[in-house]
Design brief:
Bound molecules: adenosine-5'-triphosphate, magnesium ion
Strand order of the largest sheet: 9-10-6-11-5-12-13-16
Largest sheet: 8 strands, mixed
Structural class: alpha/beta
Order of helices and strands: EHEEHEHEHEHEEEEHEHEHEEEHEHHHH
Strand content: 15-25%
CATH architecture of the largest domain: 3-Layer(aba) Sandwich
Mean pLDDT: 81
Low-confidence stretches: 1-26
Distance between the termini: 19 Å
Shape: globular
Length: about 400
Amino acid sequence: MIGHIRISFYEHSHRAFGVSCRPSTLRAMATEDQVRQALTHVIDPELHTDIVDLGMVGNIKISEGVVDVSIALTIASCPMRGQIETDVERRVASLPGIEKVVITTGVMTQEQRSTLMERARMSARKNATPTAVSASTRVIAVSSGKGGVGKSSLSVNLAIAIAGQGHTVGLLDADIWGFSAPRMLGATDMRLSANEDRKIVPTEAQGIYLVSTGLLLDDEDTALMWRGLMLTKAVEQFLNDVAWPTDLGYLIIDMPPGTGDVQMALARMLPQAEMVVVTTPQLAAQKVAARVADMARRSHMPIVGVVENMAGFVTEDGSRYEIFGSGGGASLADDIGVELLGSVPIDPHVASGGDSGDPVVVAHPDGPAGTAMTAVADRITRILPPLALDSCIGRLAAL
Ligand SMILES: Nc1ncnc2c1ncn2[C@@H]1O[C@H](COP(=O)(O)OP(=O)(O)OP(=O)(O)O)[C@@H](O)[C@H]1O
Ligand SMILES: [Mg+2]
C-alpha cells in the first residue's frame, strides 16, 4: 500500500536512448520482465541489496515507449530518494525502445518495512564475501572504441582524484597485456602478494589499491606471453580472487582498447558497472567511441558521460591550437544522450608524468590537465555519489 505519492518525470529524446529512426538501430520494445530485470541492478545505497529483491518495485506499465515504474521507499524523507530515482531512471532508460521513464514514488507500510528488513539481512549474509567487489562499490569502466585516446591516463588520475576526496578507491588494469597503470603510478617495482586465504592482495600505490598483470610479471616484455590468454578469464580472476578492501567506494577499471568481450564479461560479473567513454575531439575517434556507447547499451551498462581528451593546446601566451580538431566530445555526448563530463587539454605533463610515475593531478594539480581531470572526478562523484552514505534506517528507527 502506498502512502504519500510524488511523481518524478523524466523525458528523453529519441536519439538519447537508442530509439533512433535509423533502420540499423531499430530494436524491439523492452518488456516488463526486462524492466524488472534491469531494476535488479539498482542497489539500495543503505541496504546494499537490489530494490527488486527488497520489494521496493511495484507496478510497471509500458506503453508506446513510456515506462511507468512505482517505487516504494522505506520512509518519505529518505535521503537516498533522489539517488534511487536517478539510478532507476538511468537503468530503465538504457533499455531498447524506451523514450520516457515516469517514476511514481510512495512510502512503505510498517508491514512492508519489516519484510524489507528481513530480506536485507538475509541478503547481507548471503553476499558476505570479503573478496568479491561489494554490491555497494561504484564501478566505473573507462572505455573507448580506439586505442591511445587517454583511457589509462584518465583512469589513473581519476582514481587518485576520487581518493583525494576521501574515498577508498581501487584501480583494476583490465588491459591484460597492454598494461600501463603500474608505470603511470610509479609502481613498476611493486608486486602483488597473496593472503592466507590465497587471495591476491592489491598493491597500494599513491593512495589507491591497484591490480594489474604488470604487477605479476617480471618485466614488461613478458607481457607478450599473455597474448594467448583468454582475456575474460584473467579479468574474472581479478574480480573473484582479489581481496579488495571491504569499504571500497569506487573501482575504476582501465579498459583495453575496443574489446567487446571484456566489456561483456564485466557487465555479467559486475552488474553495477557503468561506463565513462573517452574520446578525442576529431570526428573519426568520435565515430569509434559511438560504437562503444552502443555496445554499452546492448550490455545494459549505463554511460555516465563522455570525457573529451587531448582537447586543444594552450601556449603560455594564451594562444589556443585545436591540434586534433574540436567539438567531438560534445557532439558524441549529444548523440548518445549523456553529458560531457569535461574536456582535458593536451598537457605535456600528462605524458611525462605517465612515464615517470607522477600523475598530473598530484604533480601539476593547477596545470591545464590537472585542473580539468580533477573537475571530471568531481563531476563523476556528484553523479555517482558513494553508495554507503546517510541512513534511511537510522531515520526509520527515530520514527
Ligand atoms: N591530455 C593529454 N595531454 C598530453 N598527453 C596525453 C594526454 N592524454 C594522454 N596523453 C598521452 O597519450 C598517450 C596515450 O595515452 P593513454 O596510454 O592514457 O591512452 P589509452 O587510451 O589508455 O591507450 P591504449 O588504448 O593503448 O590503452 C600516452 O603517452 C599519454 O601520456
Ligand atoms: Mg591504456
